[in-house]
Amino acid sequence: MPLHLTLDGQKHSIEIVRRKPHLVLRVDGRTHEILEWSDEPVGSITIDGDATAIARALVDEGGRETCFVRVAGRTLEVVLTDPREESAGHDATRDEIHAPMPGAIVSVHKLVGEQVTRGETVVTIESMKLQTALAAPRDGRLIDVLKKSGESFDKDELLARLEPMDEA
Amino acid sequence: MNQSPEAKPLFRKVLVANRGEIAVRVMRTLRAMNIASVAICHRVEREAVHARFADEAYEIKGETPVAAHLDADAIIAVARDCDADAIHPGYGFLSENAVFARKVAAAGLTFIGPEADTIDLMGDKISARNFAAAHDVPVAPSVQARDDISAFVRAASEIGFPLLIKAAAGGGGKGMSIVRDTSELGERARVASSEAQRYFGDGRIYAETYVERPRHIEVQVLGDGKGGAIHLFERECSIQRRFQKIIEEAPSAPLPESIRTEICDAAVRLVAAARYKNAGTVEFIVGADGRFFFLEMNTRLQVEHPVTEMICGIDLVRAQIEIAAGGPLPLTQRQVCADGHAIECRICAEDADAGFLPATGPIRLLRVPSAEYIRFDNSLEQGQRVTADFDPMLAKLVVWGKDRAEATDRMVAALKQLTILGLRTNIDYLIRTVENAAFRDGALHTNFIAEHADVLAPAAVDERLRDHVLIAAALGQRAFRDAITVVGEPHASMAGWRN
Amino acid sequence: MRKIQSMISTSGTDFRRNDARNRELVAQFRAKQDRARHVRPKRDLERLSSQGKMRPRERIEKLLDPGTPFLELSSLAANMAYEGESPSASSIVGIGIVSGRETIIRADDPTVKGGAWYPLSVKKIVRALDIAIENRLPVIHLCDSAGGFLPLQSELFPDRHMAGRIFRNQSILSKMGVKQLSLVFGHCTAGGAYIPALSDYSVIVRGTGAVFLGGPPLVKAATGEESTVEELGGADMHTSVSGTCDYPAANENEAILIGREIVAQWDQAQKWPIQRDPPEAPAYDPQELYGILPDDIKKQFDMREIIARIVDGSRFHEYQPNYGSTLVCGYANIWGFKVGILANNGVLFNDSSLKGGHFIELCDQNNTPLVFLQNITGYMIGRDYERRGITKDGAKMIMAQSCARVPKFTVMCNGSFGAGNYGMCGRAFDARLLLAWPNHQIGVMGGDQAANTLAEVKANQMRRSGEPVDQATLARVRTETLTAYQEQISAYYSTSELWDDGIIDPVDTRNALGVAISASLNAPLGQKGYGVFRF
């Protein structure tokens, strides 16, 4: 499957066409021969006989991979799309927080309506003398918390629901 | 270790009450002078380069990192506890804080900078202006606002428009505003005053003649505190964005020799009259007609001091230390001579294409150009994270050339080699600016960036560049590279064969 | 090694006539293949896309590493069966590269009767798993099948190599440490449910994928219980309740990506280290094969000309060049892999049989895979040859060939008749892959010989009963035999019945062998040893 990248808000795709005797890639349907390349962050890349000095660095933060590429005194940012995230799209199961085991709520950390980011603790539960923090499975807005502090629940019971934030 | 032939260092140990590139720069001179250096840092910068570069480093507690660096008492306590005998304040933070300077002295330590009273005198724009005017240094016609705004409006209108409204206690462009006719003057004055109150705790403002498309020229001075003073020529600092300099050079190439002499002499006159001690900078506004007015005096080492060092061959920090230790001026005015041309670019973490908003992020790749004519003042290292805790200036790239054309060429080349990837920086913007024809022609003024905004914007990405960048990005991803290398022979050579 | 010096004139009339005829044959083959692969009733395709499903070949293309080969096997299986209702036997099988690993990919074809298995589908699947076992190739099942085609259940269910063999082979593969992954895109019902269940890993698509022994109608009929597909065997049920499947996927794309990630975790067996050299294209253009293969099966041609257009640099080290010259033996490289080639240049005599047997032993000793290029009318018959022991010499060759532990590959280049098929590693002799060219014919004897033999038998009957020999009757016997033969000896009939692993364009032979040889090196060599040679 092709790799999808975004540059200046435009989507592009790159596909491997062949590897030997040299690498051939297809960028949005245009075929390019890569005669020379390296996995070093700074190096030369020869595309269709055209050698360019390139420096690049990958930043994997906030759930997305951005590659900073510097060519001839120009720096451009390319966002690399995770193909699985892209395929799965908006997965409804990630809008819900279910109890992984029976227990009771120790504390609710977020208010209904509040914005949460993936990984942020929404509720802390206690089960078998062990406290577990349940995190938001995605960025979004908390639209429902079904249990109050001290209330108990069964395994798999729905504890909280999120809705996606409007994409900017 | 080589034993210095100098009998004894001027100080045993100096605390540098700063961080980042300037702390490292000061420590380099301390090290060269055989003086131990002490760094201070907030919890978040324990691993920072300046803290590791120093011989000793101490943590200052603070609600915010900036608060730690502004905690005068805590810093002085550290200096005393570690047996330092002097404090160098760098620039920013406490460098122009007279209260701090007094407390340092009261603690029995040497403040490497001017006397507290001089800081007070020059720190207040109005008193500084008055002092300058009194000593035959040209100042722009101005009027200070009293409680009665309408009287202020009347008096200001008499000077003539355009006018510049400024905060008496201000700096850095905060509370500044250009007014072009009477009708908006009252409202602008009120806004400026409340802004000044908010930023500086002092709502006093004044209005002065606004010079259209002015150049910002400043003179580096050294004073011995007894009325002896010299200048080390001027610096051209007209390229500014958001009222802050980003490119400085020395000398100011298009400045006529006669005006240069006049400006430098005026600066020395002012400094001598103030019995100024240590290094300082006198800033002027120069109009297109060659008229110049005193703007303010900065009673500290300037960010852009390296351009002066590069053309004059002097270490200003060393001079500061020698003067602070009670020594005479390191050279006479006659001994001061300038050679060639130096340019400095401030490398900032900011989005130059979107209003110069500060940017944050990790430095994933750092490649620094190196040549005997290149100086890169910095405290960066690959892997470090740039946060919003401090000023977005990351480093200063300085080059020297035999003339401005050579220095400009060298700066472009050095900027192209300088690689800081992982967050947005203004490096590309600086390249476009330095390569710009108007810049090369020396047609500089403080409105340069706004006026050339169109041509300084990045060119559209053409198909060739776009595909090269996309390919480079894809090949930068481990998973994509693995997908290429994971396939062995004979399959790699057969490519997408189907039967 | 020396380059073969071709004696072919590419501008001669024979060459041009052959070229035209063989290109026509290949065009016919491609047309049949194209129909089997792509031509489906619109209604079936629309149903598929309305379910958000991809066509099986799209799934395979997405699963494969981009820019890598895929050797499809038996693309024309069942092409002469079931009145063409089961193109490719409703199943796609091939060797392809996934996350850098050589795998067997086996996909149900839901565009044909809901992916139902015909008897030949079962045969094709069992063969695919046999290839996996022989070569230790991991298997990826792309499951989307309604189950066995009930009207023909007796031909696909009960016997030793029928449906049960699929699950037996799956179990044996797992025991051997050869991984299997099922991507469940559609329903896996009844026996089909065991495919994911017996796979080491499985991914199931939410909404369309389902695994159960009996679907809702069967459950209702059997117990009266009302149930939905999701409750009985949906993705969430199986991945969070029953544990029958491992990974839920939001859609087919994600299932494929998860599958690729899973394969990337698999260990890769050390390849058996045969002699390998850098690959090199043949010096002679493989397209010239079309001009070399004769337009009449009875015309002889020099197999060295074929070898020159398949092997690296057209280089060939010929063994015993002056002895047993009707069997050309020698070493060459294909895609860098050292191989021993045995190719027929005429009928097998005593000396050619002995040479063949000896050369097979040499290759076995030298860890060199064997490639058989068949164009054989049989072992020589007649009193003199029998007295010289042609049968026991042929037996020696068969013994050596059967017992050699190096991988064997057979290409049916033109004709394969009689016991020559055995000596030259016919289907019964477990070639790792057996491929045929479109011009190829196969039978216990040639059509003419069979017709003449049967006519001769008939004439003898008439003579014994004292009747006059009626030439008209004999002519009828001849034509009837020839017609029946014509159909059954064609390559299309062979491949329809899965007597081979597929017809290929002669030009593709080098790549097909490259993929096959590379795959074969995943399995270790067995123990060296032979039975008793009759000297």
From TrEMBL, chain A:
Q: Where is the Lipoyl-binding domain?
A: 87-163
Name the keywords, alphabetized. Biotin
Q: Name the domain of life.
A: Bacteria
Name the InterPro entries on file. Answer: Biotin_Carboxyl_Carrier/Decarb, Biotin_lipoyl, Single_hybrid_motif
What PANTHER family does the record point to?
A: OXALOACETATE DECARBOXYLASE ALPHA CHAIN
Q: What is this protein called?
A: Biotin-dependent enzyme
Q: What is the lineage of its organism?
A: Bacteria, Pseudomonadati, Pseudomonadota, Alphaproteobacteria, Hyphomicrobiales
Automatic annotation (TrEMBL), chain B:
Query: Can you name this protein?
Result: Propionyl-CoA carboxylase alpha chain/3-methylcrotonyl-CoA carboxylase alpha subunit/acetyl-CoA/propionyl-CoA carboxylase biotin carboxyl carrier protein
Name the Pfam families for this protein: Biotin_carb_C, Biotin_carb_N, CPSase_L_D2
Q: Which GO terms describe its molecular function?
A: ATP binding; ligase activity; metal ion binding
PROSITE patterns the record matches: ATP_GRASP (PS50975), BC (PS50979), CPSASE_1 (PS00866), CPSASE_2 (PS00867)
Q: Where are the annotated coiled coils located?
A: none
In this protein, which residues make up the domain named ATP-grasp? 129-325
Q: Does the keyword GTP-binding apply?
A: no
Q: Which domain of life is it from?
A: Bacteria
Keyword Zinc-finger included in the entry's annotation: no
Keyword terms: ATP-binding, Biotin, Ligase, Nucleotide-binding
Using the record's annotation, list all stretches that form the Biotin carboxylation domain. Answer: 10-454
TrEMBL record, chain C:
Domain CoA carboxyltransferase C-terminal: residue ranges? 278-527
GO BP, one annotated term: L-leucine catabolic process
Q: Name one GO cellular component term.
A: methylcrotonoyl-CoA carboxylase complex
- Every CoA carboxyltransferase N-terminal domain range: 17-278
Select a single GO molecular function from the record's annotations and give it.
methylcrotonoyl-CoA carboxylase activity
- Protein name per its UniProtKB record: 3-methylcrotonyl-CoA carboxylase beta subunit
